[in-house]
Amino acid sequence: MSDTILIGRVPVKRTAALAPMAGVADRAYRLMCKRFGAAYVVSEMVSAKGICYSDRKTAELCTVTDEERPMGVQLFGNEPEFMAKAVEIVKRYEPDIIDINMGCPVPKVVGTGAGSALMKDADLAAAVCEAAVKAAGDIPVTAKIRSGWSADTVNAVDMAKKLEAAGAAAIAVHGRTRDQFYSGAADLNVIRDVKQAVSVPVIGNGDVTDLPSYLNMYRQTGCDLVMIGRGSYGNPFIFREIAAYENGEEYVPPTVGEKMQTMLEHIRLMLSLSEKSEELAMHEARKHAAWYMNGCYGSAKFRGMCYQLSSYAEAVELAARFEELQLSRAQ
Ligand SMILES: Cc1cc2nc3c(=O)[nH]c(=O)nc-3n(C[C@H](O)[C@H](O)[C@H](O)COP(=O)(O)O)c2cc1C
Asked: CB of 144 closer than 6 A to ligand 1?
């Protein structure tokens, strides 16, 4: 198995990528995952129409730092003209890849006809993709789809073929229908079917939470790249474990002390990248802090305390108390 794939002209290590996650995978999160070995990262979704009308948050959402590369900027929209204009704007930020969101299930996005609503109109999806491809020039355009809109209308294969014909350089498939939102299990067979139907790289996504599920995604689907979303919550270590496996190196899981140090590094990064006050930025950091405690003794109570944090100093203190609790239990 080759250790690198090409998305258009962009080489990406054939290990695991970080999935785009609005409200979660911001720059600090992407950098943490990158530092731990993520092969590829994608921005939070950005409204194509939104950036055509206002540039208020464009720079914050679309800026690509060198440490994040290779990185994709993800757009959502259902109007080819706006998609083309948005691509022109996004190009200024020199993303490695431009990705189009065709999987978002939330009513606010679907209600506008974008996100997974495009699964209901493969021809429109292809027209949006084609407009983006034309505007993007030599930047590869990819699409991220679901298995279908509903269990009765699973059409990922048809979508993928049309997107490939429209010039998509890779297709990411989340093996759930829109109706499932994030519940139930991802159907890996749909991802396999897409892989068999197109020649561009297929990115397999859904329910990869550890090394066995990562290996299974490659094995069961034959996909070209695995993409991990929620399995990376408070767990950038998943990328280190995968990288160690792929490099034939021994993997040493993090101690609680390392988890807490990594949590604090993540919070420091969030604070340093935020233009908000420490208190407001800490509000955004709370859920991340809580996630780093998942799966440890006493984490339910401590996670509750994470949601009270309003300064970095408090986070340091809480991390020390959490570590002490684990050590006292081990004695
Ligand atoms: C909080 C959250 C935000 C998400 N935001 C996006 C997004 O902006 N764009 C996108 O294509 N998918 C988004 N997704 C979907 C994920 O990229 C991914 O497809 C999904 O979570 C399934 O993968 P997983 O089982 O590894 O989490 C989001 C998912 C979550 C949980």
From this structure: yes
